[in-house]
Write a structure and sequence with these properties.
Blueprint lengths: L2 E8 L3 H12 L4 E5 L6 H4 L3 E2 L2 E2 L4 E2 L3 H19 L4 E9 L3 H10 L3 H4 L2 E3 L15 E10 L1 H14 L3 E3 L4 H4 L1 E3 L2 E4 L4 E8 L19 E9 L8 E4 L1 E7 L2 E5 L13 H12 L7 E10 L8 E4 L6 E5 L5 H18 L47 H12 L5 E4 L6 H10 L4 E5 L3 H13 L5 E4 L6 H4 L8 E7 L14 H14 E11 L6 H13 L6 E7 L9 E7 L6
Parallel strand pairs: 1-2, 1-12, 2-9, 6-14, 12-19, 20-21, 20-23, 21-22, 23-24
Antiparallel strand pairs: 3-8, 4-5, 6-8, 7-8, 10-11, 11-12, 13-16, 13-17, 14-15, 15-16, 18-19, 24-26, 25-26
Length: about 575
């Protein structure tokens, strides 16, 4: 008899390991299956988490959310295992050229940038380092000893029977069922399987449309007698201490030679860059190379398969996997378990143009299915995330130049989506009572260079008075995402009374053909009551004026998210 678990995780790199721990923290039954390759990008990675990064000298993408999540996660794993593999450490950035100096000077007055600087000078020993153009010290970043973390995690998973070794063959080992997936080779059944295989997933029969641009990276192990610096130093490459007189240095980016073989060219490139700022002689005592799984948009990608919701994906962590893995593992787990929405920036369905259908065996188009399995019915309806269905309905209603409303800005995902759809000729009003929510939304919009959004720190029940009178009856879409702020205080939630008032206000603001989407999460205190009140409110709308659609994420379950779609068919009756 097969063992029934909740989720199977394929791959024990940074992504798979973080997801495994997240599932374990949530009390779910899981299994991690790994092929135990000797060389992977995770095993070679330096594990650096740098506050300010890149040639443009900019704050690391979404550091305000990702950094606290990473610190909390790794410290919790250390407590659970009794191991030590994560440290918070100051980092020094030396300027490589005058252009970097000017970029720094242009940004240092920005509070969001200045808060990441602990010293405006590099303060390095000039007998060991060349600091001709100066530099600065950042607030503490982090360094994860990735091999130690992975081995510790593997041992912890194995101790509870949650780790399995093997090279997965999807055409032989994975069978999709009505309830999820079955893996007879390991006698497992689960509601979902998540592929976290790094570059090995590029040829996945189900996810082969996900577009990657992998890069080979090489790093060196250096012996530098007399160098006492314990901080991480950046100048073209990074230099990080290992203990004693040993240091790691890297890394290269090679987009053409996609193998894991160290090269003389890679060694020479890193060594030359180290000599540009380290005065002391050094010896190369080790060299490693691996392929980074970098998605074309530079960010991670995660989410369910569009046709087979029991198949999920978590990949593309790239060179910042130590930072990205904890936060997005938690987001994916909540998406799979509770139906919570994914960030549009990382949602695999937002970042992928699906061109190839596949059958349940994972065989490519035209390939015969094994005789003992039936091919999937490719054009039947499948369960899709409610966030995706909400956006689809809104997308069908909006036109460039329209005005739209995000009634619950949160972290800005729907605001960003609406702004993209209406374009620069349109307008978006975004409401939230929490300053942190509006700050998160503002950052997201600034990163996307979106300026046609009005942020309002007001309750959404005040929508009628907040939106200019000349726009009443002309709003193309209103989106509600009820509940608490993801990543914020779970005690601060939308309130049933104001939600009902807001829904009634949104009804009166919609133009003919306009759409209102209401996504209600019932898993938190008061969530079920709020969903019921939202449903009661829309049930009061005249059927001659409104078309109403109700969708449950998991029919038959009382705790699953619920989506209400309301389309105005015509003007109010006289």
């Amino acid at each position: 008899m097969s063992t029934q678990i909740d989720i199977i995780v394929v791959g024990q790199g940074l992504a798979g390991t973080a997801l495994g721990w997240t599932l374990r923290f949530s009390g779910l039954r899981f299994a991690v299956i790994d092929r135990e390759e000797a060389v992977t990008s995770s095993k070679v990675a330096a594990g650096l988490i740098t506050p300010i990064t890149g040639q443009k000298i900019v704050p690391t993408w979404r550091r305000e959310e990702l950094w606290p999540a990473a610190v909390e996660f790794y410290q919790r794993v250390e407590r659970e295992t009794g191991a030590a593999f994560f440290r918070q450490t100051p980092m020094v950035r030396l300027f490589e050229n005058q252009q970097e100096v000017e970029r720094f000077q242009g940004r240092v007055s920005d509070p969001g940038f200045a808060n990441l600087i602990s010293q405006s000078t590099a303060s390095l020993d000039e007998r060991s380092f060349l600091c001709d153009r100066g530099g600065f010290q950042m607030t503490p970043g982090g360094q994860l000893n990735v091999p130690a973390y992975l081995q510790t995690s593997r041992d912890a998973f194995a101790a509870t029977g949650s780790y399995l070794s093997g090279d997965l063959d999807v055409s032989r080992d994975v069978e999709l069922t009505g309830q999820g997936v079955a893996m007879t080779r390991w006698n497992l059944q689960a509601s979902a399987i998540v592929f976290c295989q790094g570059v090995a997933a590029i040829d996945s029969p189900w996810f082969r449309d996900v577009r990657f641009k992998p890069a080979k990276g090489e790093i060196l192990t250096l012996k530098i007698p007399g160098l006492m610096e314990q901080r991480v130093v950046h100048r073209g490459v990074w230099l990080t201490p290992l203990g004693g007189d040993l240091f790691k240095a890297g890394a290269t980016y090679d987009w053409k030679h996609l193998d894991c073989e160290p090269t003389a060219a890679g060694r020479d490139q890193i060594a030359e860059r180290v000599r540009a700022f380290v005065r002391l002689p050094f010896e190369v005592v080790g060299q490693d190379a691996a392929l980074r799984p970098i998605h074309r948009n530079q960010y991670p990608v995660l989410g369910r398969h569009p046709l087979h919701p029991q198949l999920a994906y978590f990949n593309g962590l790239g060179s910042k996997g130590a930072l990205h893995a904890p936060f997005f593992a938690r987001q994916l787990a909540r998406h799979l378990i509770e139906g919570q929405p994914l960030d549009l920036e990382v949602d695999v369905n937002q970042k992928t143009e699906w061109l190839h259908s596949t059958d349940v065996t994972g065989a490519k188009d035209g390939a015969p299915a094994p005789a003992n399995r039936q091919p999937a019915r490719r054009h039947t309806a499948v369960r899709r995330p409610l966030t995706e269905q909400a956006q689809e309905a809104v997308l069908a209603a909006l036109q460039p130049g329209d005005t739209a409303i995000d009634a619950t800005a949160g972290n800005g995902h729907d605001t960003h989506f609406l702004a993209q759809v209406v374009g620069s000729a349109g307008n978006v009003f975004a409401f939230d009572v929490q300053p942190v929510a509006l700050a998160n939304t503002a950052r997201r919009l600034a990163d996307a260079m979106i300026t046609h959004v009005v942020l309002m720190q007001r309750d959404h029940s005040e929508m009628t008075t907040a939106v200019p009178a000349d726009l009443h009856g002309r709003i193309g879409a209103v989106m509600f995402n009820l509940g608490y702020l993801p990543g914020g205080n779970r005690q601060l939630v939308t309130r049933s009374d104001s939600t009902r008032q807001a829904i009634l206000a949104a009804r009166d603001l919609l133009r003919t053909g306009g759409v209102m989407s209401i996504l209600a999460y019932t898993g938190h205190d008061g969530g079920q009551a709020e969903a019921d009140i939202a449903e009661s409110a829309i049930d009061s709308f005249p059927s001659s004026e409104f078309q109403i659609t109700k969708v449950e994420s998991a029919p038959g379950r009382t705790s699953g998210p619920r989506l209400f779609l309301v389309k105005r068919l015509g003007p109010p009756s006289a």
